[in-house]
What does this fold into?
Amino acid sequence: MNIMTNSTGIKIISPATLRFDSFGMENLSMTLENPANELIAKLDTETKNITLKDTSLKKIENPELLISFGNEFIDQYGIENGAIININNRIPALSGLGNIESNITALALALNELNKIHLDKNSIFRLIEKYTYDNNSQLNLSAIASNLFGGCIAYNQNIKSSIQKIYEPNGLAFSIFSFTTSFASINDKSECNSSDIVTFIKAMMTSDVSLLKEFFHNNSLQKQWTKEGLYSEIRALAIEHDAMGIGFTDNHKSIFIISENTVIRENVDSVITKYIKKTPLKYQYFSSGLNLNGLYKS
It folds into this structure.
């Protein structure tokens, strides 16, 4: 369990997630080791509400949603105290890397632990799922599931499907370039065709790296982005230097590159960093492995 407790309360490390919208699979997410948000919570016996410290209010994504969810959690379980929350945001806000999902999941776990509610990870997920539908929230439940369970998660938000954890090859290495503005205007709402989905699932469940690379390189939607300037150039460079695949987040503010191992990743990163530095775009860079355990391990 990625949780630390001390005299000042409880500290939870909650990871970023990657959604596969740009491959036509918006219901699929992967969990990263880095970046991750740090949430520190302690009981507040003076109120029965969630209080975010002033420093948090200036940094976190959608604080109103976080407070609303936390207060509803307190009401639902008849908790007699509130909680003071401070968040160190390491996942860039509005980056498409699951910042708000990370914070919501961390808050649910913190309230569960502080108040000894004893919810397991499935119950925590269903609680957030119910809140999402009841309040018409924009939370992405595939990312929430990834946060809780780790690895590669499939969850169809449209039909409230069961959560499916897909086996994944060991050693995958990720590079994330998160920009301060959108790098392109791409219509990425199409769905992946069935043959692409079959290839991907088979590759993940059999740990077939060559088949996974085939999926990333030949994905029917990826071929549509070849005219999109910056992304097209970065994609060509990454694949030329043996990257397994490359995608982008749904708001086009982050590009992620998947490599078979860290040696290939370091080589790819060197080339891509030199290319991006020639552009006027400002960005943050993260290297990561695949987080197999997520935020919460029962």
Observations:
- The first strand starts at residue 3 and ends at 6.
- The radius of gyration is 19 Å.
- The chain has nine helices and eleven strands.
- The CA atoms of residues 96 and 146 lie 14 Å apart.
